[in-house]
Amino acid sequence: MSPGDLAVIVGLNLVGAASPGPDVVLVTRTATRSRRHARAVAAGVLVGVLLWCTLTVLGAAAMLHAFPWMLTALQVVGGLVLVAMGLANVAQGWRDRRNPPMDAAEAESRLGTLRRSFVRGLSTNVSNPKIVFALTAMIAPLLPANPSPATAAVVILALWLSTVAVFALLSQVVSTRRVQRRLFAAGPYIDIGAGGFFIAVGALVFLRGILATM
């Protein structure tokens, strides 16, 4: 693989990572309240991304095509997880709307522990297996049919580090005091909107899994 091919893969991945999706919505929503928790969410997302990148380069897409029941199971379970998270976000937003936090410190405390934020980020990312096919579409035309261990490692690292850059920037920018002050009053509505987004995406993923069994 040439440096130019690797640059193309990284460029496509940067665009894909920054595109609106469950991961971006969750990090953004969390960053409006707490930089520490946003970083914990991003860390969870990035662990999931590393897993998917590794599986993709090692041929996970081919395996899912060969054993479609595995994809169906991932979609059904993942869809339910996303819907459950969405309902929790809507409920939290509704409670905060009726009993809004008094200040930024209270808003941050309502996010729970950093460990909980990390798990939310990880579960959000691994709940949506379509990332395997998105990554495959990006790298398949450029990756050798049988890449050497060194080439595979370079591609995985390049994909992961470019995603790290996107989420590090996102969590840093949105969690600045200036942005947080502007979005503080809208916090409950951001939660409700984010929850609605998760419910819609989760329902779509779930339905795709169910329809695949018919």
TrEMBL record:
<keyword id="KW-1003">Cell membrane</keyword>
<keyword id="KW-1133">Transmembrane helix</keyword>
<dbReference type="Pfam" id="PF01810">
    <property type="entry name" value="LysE"/>
</dbReference>
<feature type="transmembrane region" description="Helical">
    <location>
        <begin position="40"/>
        <end position="63"/>
    </location>
</feature>
<feature type="transmembrane region" description="Helical">
    <location>
        <begin position="183"/>
        <end position="207"/>
    </location>
</feature>
<protein>
    <submittedName>
        <fullName>LysE family translocator</fullName>
    </submittedName>
</protein>
<feature type="transmembrane region" description="Helical">
    <location>
        <begin position="69"/>
        <end position="91"/>
    </location>
</feature>
<dbReference type="GO" id="GO:0005886">
    <property type="term" value="C:plasma membrane"/>
</dbReference>
<keyword id="KW-0812">Transmembrane</keyword>
<dbReference type="GO" id="GO:0015171">
    <property type="term" value="F:amino acid transmembrane transporter activity"/>
</dbReference>
<feature type="transmembrane region" description="Helical">
    <location>
        <begin position="150"/>
        <end position="171"/>
    </location>
</feature>
<feature type="transmembrane region" description="Helical">
    <location>
        <begin position="126"/>
        <end position="144"/>
    </location>
</feature>
<dbReference type="InterPro" id="IPR001123">
    <property type="entry name" value="LeuE-type"/>
</dbReference>
<keyword id="KW-0472">Membrane</keyword>
<feature type="transmembrane region" description="Helical">
    <location>
        <begin position="6"/>
        <end position="28"/>
    </location>
</feature>
